[in-house]
Amino acid sequence: MWPLSLSLPASSKLVYSLLTLGFLSLPVLSTHEATSPVVAIEQGSFIGSTDGHTNRYLGIRYAQPPTGDLRFRRPLPVEPYTGTIDVSDFAPICPQHLIELPSELPPTLDVGMTLRIVTGVYNATAPQSEDCLSLNIWTPPNVSGDSKLPVAVWIHGGGFQVGSANQYDGGILVRRSIEIGEPMIFVGLNYRLSALGWLAGKEAKEAGVGNLGFFDQRLALKWIQKNIQLFGGDPTKVTIFGESAGAVSVATHMMTNNGDHEGLFRAAFMESGSTWPVGDMEGGQRWYDDLVANTECADEEDTVECLRDVPLDKLRAAMDRAPAFFSYSALSLSWGPRTDGEFMPNSGRELLMSGNVAKVPTLIGTCDDEGTAFALGAANTTTTEELRDYLSTIVFPDATQSSIDALLEAYPEDPTLGAPFGTGEMNAISPQFKRLAAIWSDLAFIAPKALWAKKRADIQDTWVYVHKRNKNVAVLGATHFTDIFDLFGPSDMTDHFIHFVSYLNPNGGAPVEVQTVFDDLSTHSQVPLNIGGAVGWPRYNSATKLKLAYMAGSPSVSVVPDTDREKQVTFMMKFLEENQMR
Ligand SMILES: *[C@@H]1O[C@H](CO)[C@@H](O)[C@H](O)[C@H]1NC(C)=O
Ligand SMILES: *[C@@H]1O[C@H](CO)[C@@H](O)[C@H](O)[C@H]1NC(C)=O
Ligand SMILES: *[C@@H]1O[C@H](CO)[C@@H](O)[C@H](O)[C@H]1NC(C)=O
């Protein structure tokens, strides 16, 4: 067997055409000039690029273009590859939903951090195309078909409405993995967004075209099973990981198909997201009705079929009329995942409770102040009455008045109990801001995470963390997305993740003795577990409930009990048993 990853001079057009014509068989050349890595696949070959530290194969198509008659249909596997395919640069990203920041931002807002988050989530200048089902691969420079390295597959966030794999530099993780002697492969995948990937309404449900973004991701995971060995990866050692919408996606892949992961992955990492508290596709009917009305499809017999013929610009203008996730309605998503009866036969919470969940080692955690970024859009909500109205019309339109009253009581108008948590009277930019921020934090992220840990940790190796390194950011605190800067650092969080990918344990190969060294649990004393000079990250279980806290300053990590605001989080877990968003 010959090595499958080779080197060719980037400039050698002749070699490319010879390859295309089948005159040259591989392996061929190595030179002293800058070289382009090549991977032979089926009847073709991919020509990637290298920076000397990692090799990149970018914009690899994994599905047929979801355009023309394939728009609003489940993705089909890509046709066999033939000829020489240039994968040295990114392919276009999927059409993005129009994002508008709240028109009035508080003067004390940390503009630098806000810009870092917004540009991290969303690249406004990257070229977009409906033909966007591609993935990006980074590998160590000198791998071959029998390297059999573990593989980390990244599902990006962006509220199911924006974002792309292209803005996450997998090279940082791969380079670090080589440095610490645990080389791995990184794959980032693109999936359809906004209405194109997450149509709602009974017509879309009946046509079986809900949650297309999940189908795209699943197809990409199957592509990886089939092909990653050619790039030096081991298809039996895949870890899926994602943040926000990506983490919700990871949770869904663990629960779809009755929890049968079909060997597509052996470990999972959910960063700020797990089960999404939303109901059936019909709950999004109003967005579908608006969409067909604004594309002149409303009077057609088959409205989904009509939408396939609408020019993309017109379709986008219509889909953008529905609110995006930084707007007033925030995480009450217009276009997003919902129960479809098939990929998601039931709500995420019910799937989790059923126990049919992929039994793979799991990392799960959140930022401390997740919800602040999502409360900015409703900062004009200034009285309890207005908040009651907001919660019962925008967030939980199906909830009873008494449920909403109980929610308001559990999250009182007291800035010292709101998010950013633990900041006293500070950051109260409006009388309800910290209160709503606390509600968003718990309902979308922290309570679902707590329920996941509670249900799964005694069944399957689970490690839990909280990220608190940005607590001192004005107004936002340790808000959603701020841990990404560490994960793609590199930082200690990067290393924990790489260890997890390699050893199915964030502590790496060394066994970790779990010892309880807390003087007094009630004061949440933060005494690190000291194991061989490093802080060990104990497995979570329902008795000790220990998690890792990423801290600013010293110590930079601590092991703490997962009992922060236990009363509110427990309330929210209970509340979500009976209530969900539309
Ligand atoms: C955004 O996209 C542009 C165009 O492809 C690219 O040049 C730029 O590097 C991207 N920025 C980020 C932060 O990914
Ligand atoms: C790549 O080659 C370098 C230098 O020969 C070596 O140190 C490194 O371990 C190799 N990496 C892999 C992933 O094989
Ligand atoms: C706040 O702004 C939103 C969006 O413009 C509006 O719908 C809502 O009525 C406003 N709320 C209050 C209390 O003014």
TrEMBL record:
Keywords annotated in UniProt: Hydrolase, Signal
Region forming the signal peptide: 1-30
Origin superkingdom: Eukaryota
GO-annotated molecular function: hydrolase activity
Keyword Ribosomal protein: no
InterPro entries: AB_hydrolase_fold, CarbesteraseB, Carboxylesterase_B_AS, Type-B_Carboxylest/Lipase
EC number(s) on file: 3.1.1.-
The Carboxylesterase type B domain, residue ranges: 36-491
EC class: hydrolase
Record-linked PROSITE patterns: CARBOXYLESTERASE_B_1
Residue ranges of the TM segments: none
Pfam family, one: COesterase
Family per record: Belongs to the type-B carboxylesterase/lipase family.
Record-given protein name: Carboxylic ester hydrolase
Organism: Steccherinum ochraceum
